[in-house]
Design a protein that fits this description.
The complex is a heterodimer of chains A (about 575) and B (about 375). Chain A is of the alpha/beta class and about 575 residues long. Chain A has helices spanning about 1-50, 60-65, 95-115, 180-205, 215-220, 245-260, 375-390, 420-450, 455-480, 480-500, 515-550; strands at about 70-80, 120-130, 145-150, 160-165, 170-175, 225-235, 240-245, 265-275, 285, 290-295, 320-325, 335, 345-350, 355-360, 365-370, 405. Chain A has a 6-stranded mixed β-sheet, sandwiched between helices. Chain A has a 5-stranded mixed β-sheet with strand order 8-6-11-14-13, covered by helices on one side. The longest helix of chain A has about 50 residues, at about 1-50. Residues about 210-215 and about 555-570 of chain A have low confidence and may be disordered. By secondary structure, chain B is of the alpha/beta class. Chain B has helices at about 50-65, 120-130, 175-185, 240-250, 260-265, 270-275, 295, 320-369, and strands at about 1-5, 25-30, 40, 80, 115, 150-155, 160, 160-165, 170, 190-195, 215, 225-230, 235-240, 280-285, 305. In chain B, strands 1-14-11-10-6 form a 5-stranded mixed β-sheet. A 3-stranded antiparallel β-sheet of chain B has the order 7-8-9. A two-stranded antiparallel sheet of chain B has the order 2-3. In chain B, helix 1 runs parallel beside helix 4. The termini of chain B are far apart. Residues about 1-40 and about 315-335 of chain B have low confidence and may be disordered. Classes of the chains: A alpha/beta (about 575), B alpha/beta (about 375).
Chain lengths: ~575, ~375
């Protein structure tokens, strides 16, 4: 009790103290507190509600998108000679530099003539070296070794020089001492022809998207660091015949060599399944022997409503391969084109989706097993389809040179020749650079246009990593390392995509004004009402005072009588 | 060009129709220009039993696109509530869009990708902009590219420039427009068809600024959209008028159909719809009367007969398969040698033990005796 009374006394005392001198200060206190609140509170509020936006290297991002540095893809050739075959130095001095210069100037000319509006200046660079006598067991992509062999020792059917472009990176040229310079000419022409077409293809692949790509491009699935392949055995009627397959053995024998070759660029995840009772949504047309479906019916072949083709891969593109076994009553089921000519392969491809092969096993057995051998025709169709789906294109190296150039266009052991593989790598490299550059440009434009979007430091890190990788790609290309450059470009596009699709950069970006009022009013209205009223009151008082000051020329407006704010003052 | 059908809009709502307020199913169908593949996504954002018709709208469109060849893997269906299993549903496990209850549009083959409380504005924006969490399964991702045509179908309760999600939040036309421009920026679509059935639906596409978007809405700004078919059995209306008119037209088209959007639009009867549907082709390059419905609603794959197969060697002699089997063989060999040694050692030991035992017993007995 004593404490309380003492407290009350103290308070009274304090009031007593403040009241006499408070007249001026009291009036200023609300103004000061408003000032302090505004001076501290406003910046604090501004800072607190500010959207965090990391400082992205905007100029670089835009530069890569709109004005990228020229990309030069190296092609390195080495020539080694059997004893005594090299053209004598007094005959052809510096033949290697001469060939190199001629091819490069032709490539340059071609690039200049090429009126394609590309978003990425791409050109090829040809390097030629005399072999240093090293042992080349494995040659890196875009590194080729041409061995000049004595004609008599090699193929001896005719004496013409012969350039054998093999399915590996080691080419062989059969020549004689007299014809060695002619052989070099053939080599020069073939390589030039090849490089010019490659250059054209590469530039075409980065042409501005106004012109639609060729139909070939539409089949192809874009580059992905990972693909998922699903092989399905579809049995329409397991009641009349049960089918099984030795898919593991067949894949190991026919598909894996190709996938191993491609694995330097992408990972492949292979799965297989057997589906039964897979009725066709389209009834095949009966003919005198068996049934057929026409090419118009093919788009509706896949019964997407009933066949379980769903993939569990979160992002990787899935490529399906179906081995379809029709019911025994409709066998043989064949595919006929619009002229009703039976297809040779009995297979067809659906763009960007996968391939289908229809097989008609003998229907006398109750259980039919596709062994590795029986699956070979199927696998050959699938390999051909996979090549098209990935965009592997046959290379053209001969043009009016057929007599002297022999090209291995097929690689029966691998499914892809090294030349095709390198060509694909170049195309994917260019596409990756373009994808990374355009993604960075899009990201920059998007962030600028959406001012409410939060941009964390992690985005900045990803972007600078991507830019580094892009610079690295160009740098590594200049040193001639294609596969290394490819890896960098794949990283660059992956990082750029990751930055663009970062899950943090989502939210309501547009707030209508009504929402803003609705949020701030409950906070500020109760607080601002008394403050505003006191400020208004003071203002009114000040005006009144000024009026009285003019009337009475009172030197002290604050001590004027009749101040209603402090009635106890009087 | 912004076309609307003129009709007197004021107060023509009669007793059986109630005003849309809350649900938004979305349907996305990606069908590349070259008619390659397709994908479709549907989202329903309406909760509560009385919004049965929004679920029914969405499911009916889902059935249509599925019939027209878009597989479930390319459809994203978002339903904000589970009407089939609602305790008030007199027909458990079934959803009907017509009072005659002939076709169960829920059925036993439906794949709802986002359901219940997963249907939020955030998830919707994440889905279409591709900024999903890394652990999101494939069925909840929109994996489209610059060759994809996408159909968005949204229905629910809305108002001018907004569409309610879950009766708790709303998406506004600016957010959708921003999301679409981000999609365009990242080449996530070739063309979009945006179809919306809600009140004042046409306001939802008025803010679009990205190219290649064709929009159709059920009603003008200031108008309500109304429901159709009261089902006395279920005690509510089962479909919306605008969706009903569309479905009726879709019923007659198949994968080979050549019907264009203007054919569809000309069937819109404002006497039935009771609002003025509108369309917007400002951002669309192709002509309205030359754009086929199946470009968005269906998926016709582009098939090509494989000309030739790739001749492969019968006996593979190179590459890893060989080295692999060799190493396996070697390993096999060493393993069998090891086993043999172990086998012999074991028998020697056993023999030694028996001999030792014999010796010991002999010794013991000799001594003992």
């Amino acid at each position: 009790m004593g404490l309380l009374s003492r407290l009350l006394k103290k308070k009274q005392q304090a009031a007593d103290i403040t009241t006499p001198i408070g007249s001026k200060r009291d009036r200023m206190i609300p103004l000061y507190s408003v000032l302090v609140a505004v001076a501290i509170g406003l910046p604090l509020w501004w800072k607190q509600t500010e959207v965090y936006r990391a400082n992205l290297p905007s100029e670089q991002m835009i530069a890569w998108d709109s004005n990228p540095p020229p990309i030069q893809i190296p092609f390195n050739f080495m020539i080694e000679w059997d004893d005594g075959l090299e053209p004598s130095s007094d005959l052809v001095l510096d033949w290697d530099t001469k060939i190199e210069n001629r091819i490069n100037s032709a490539l340059m000319k071609d690039a200049n003539n090429d009126r394609l509006r590309t978003k990425l200046p791409v050109s090829l660079k040809f390097n030629l070296q005399r072999s240093t006598g090293k042992n080349f067991d494995t040659l890196k992509p875009n590194n080729y070794l041409v061995s000049m062999k004595n004609h008599e020792k090699g193929q001896n059917s005719d004496k013409h020089p012969l350039l054998h472009v093999t399915d590996t990176r080691k080419w062989i040229a059969y020549t004689t001492k007299k014809k060695s310079s002619e052989t070099l000419e053939i080599f020069e022409k073939s390589v030039l022809n090849y490089l010019v077409t490659e250059q054209g293809k590469l530039r075409q692949s980065v042409v501005t998207k106004d012109t639609q790509g060729s139909s070939k491009d539409l089949h192809a699935i874009n580059y992905s660091p990972k693909y998922s392949l699903v092989f399905s055995l579809m049995n329409e009627d397991p009641e009349s015949q049960i089918t099984t397959w030795d898919i593991e053995g067949a894949l190991k024998q026919y598909m894996y060599p190709l996938l191993n070759k491609l694995s330097i660029m992408s990972d492949f995840k292979v799965q297989s399944q057997i589906l039964r009772y897979t009725a066709l949504p389209i009834p095949p047309i009966a003919s005198n022997n068996g049934t057929y479906i026409t090419s118009d019916m093919l788009p509706n072949f896949i019964n997407s409503a009933e066949w379980n083709m769903a993939s569990i891969e979160p992002v990787a593109p899935t490529i399906h391969f179906l081995l379809y076994i029709p019911k025994t009553t409709s066998r043989p089921l064949v595919i006929k084109d619009s002229n009703l000519v039976s297809s040779k392969t009995n297979g067809f491809m659906i763009s960007q989706w996968g391939g289908i092969h229809i097989s008609n096993p003998p229907s006398d057995k109750q259980v039919y097993k596709f062994g590795t051998k029986e699956l070979q025709p199927t696998m050959e169709v699938f390999v051909s389809q996979l090549r098209e789906l990935l965009g592997i294109q046959e290379v053209s190296i001969t043009k009016g040179q057929h007599k002297n150039v022999k090209v291995d266009e097929l690689s029966p052991s691998n499914g892809v020749t090294d030349l095709e593989l390198d060509s694909l790598m170049c195309r994917w490299l260019i596409q990756n650079i373009r994808l990374a550059a355009s993604t960075l440009g899009s990201l920059d434009r998007m962030i600028i246009s959406l001012t409410n979007m939060v941009v964390h430091d992690s985005i900045k890190d990803l972007v600078s990593d991507a830019l580094n990788r892009l610079d690295q790609t160009v740098h590594v290309l200049s040193t001639g390392e294609l596969s290394n450059a490819f890896t960098n470009s794949a990283f660059a596009s992956g990082l750029a995509e990751k930055a663009f699709f970062d899950p943090d950069m989502v939210g309501m970006l547009y707030f209508p004004d009504e929402h803003k009022y609705a949020i701030y009013l409950p906070f500020f209205l109760p607080a601002t009402m008394p403050v505003l009223s006191i400020i208004g009151f003071r203002l009114r008082q000040w005006k009144k005072n000024r009026g009285t000051k003019k009337d009475r020329s009172n030197p002290s407006p604050l001590k004027k009588p009749g101040n209603p704010a402090k009635p106890h003052d009087e | 060009m912004l076309g609307t059908r003129h009709q007197n809009q004021s107060r023509n709502a009669d007793g059986d129709s109630d005003v849309d307020e809350f649900s938004a199913p979305l349907l996305i169908d990606n069908d590349p220009d070259s008619r390659i593949q397709h994908g479709s996504i549907r989202v329903c954002t309406s909760r509560f039993w009385f919004n049965y018709r929004h679920i029914a709208n969405t499911l009916a469109i889902y059935r249509t696109v599925k019939r027209l060849g878009i597989p479930d893997s390319n459809i994203i269906l978002m339903l904000a509530d589970d009407m089939a299993c609602n305790p008030r549903n007199k027909h458990p496990g079934a959803v009907f869009s017509h009072p005659n209850h002939e076709v169960d549009i829920y059925g036993d083959n439906v794949e709802v990708d986002y359901r219940g409380y997963e249907v939020t504005v955030e998830n919707f924006i994440r889905l279409i902009t591709g900024r999903v969490m890394p652990d999101t399964p494939r069925s909840k991702r929109l994996l489209t590219d610059d060759k994809s045509n996408i159909l968005f179908y949204l229905t629910g309760h809305g108002g001018e420039d907004f569409l309610k999600f879950q009766d708790a939040e709303e998406i506004n036309s600016y957010d959708i427009a921003d999301a679409f421009s981000q999609m365009w920026e990242k080449k996530r679509y070739n063309e979009i068809m945006f179809m919306i059935d809600t009140c004042q639906a046409n306001s939802m596409f008025s803010k679009f600024k990205s190219p290649n978007i064709l929009s159709i809405g059920s009603s003008r700004v200031g108008e309500s959209s109304y429901s159709y078919f009261h089902d006395a059995d279920l005690g509510l209306t089962v479909i919306d008028r605008f969706t009903y008119v569309n479905l009726k037209y879709f019923e007659d088209i198949d994968m080979q159909s050549r019907s264009s959007f203007s054919d569809l639009y000309s069937t819109y009867d404002t006497k039935i719809i009771k609002s003025n549907p509108g369309y917007d082709t400002r951002h669309f390059k192709r002509r309205f009367d030359q754009t086929l419905l199946t470009d968005f609603l269906g998926a016709v794959a582009k098939a090509e007969i494989t000309e030739k197969s790739y001749p492969l060697q019968r006996n593979i002699t190179r590459d890893t398969s060989k080295t692999g089997s060799n190493t396996a063989k070697v390993r096999c060999g060493t393993a069998s040698v090891g086993n043999a040694i172990m086998y012999i050692l074991y028998h020697i030991c056993l023999l030694a033990l028996i001999l030792l035992y014999l010796c010991a017993t002999c010794f013991f007995f000799n001594n003992g005796v």
